[in-house]
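ok trying this again, last paste got cut off
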Amino acid sequence: MSVDANAERLRRLRWRARRGLLENDLVLERFFEHHSDAMDEESIDGLDALLDLTDSELLGLIVGHGDLPAQIDRPAVRKVLALLREA
């Protein structure tokens, strides 16, 4: 995928990242500020999978409560989740 296509996907994901919980919004905004320039296609896919979760599921994962659902438990998702936890 081209750099332009990745940038477009990230732009769309940034819009999708606007959540109902303020806590998620704050973490995701910091994440985009620090990591969006370095994200490759695999990381973008991982973020996309995490954004499919409900607000409460995502926040629980970010703060370390619970495990990744089996259907999205893969290295790219774990990598992005670790970055979210650092944000």
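PB: full thing came through this time. The mean pLDDT is 92.
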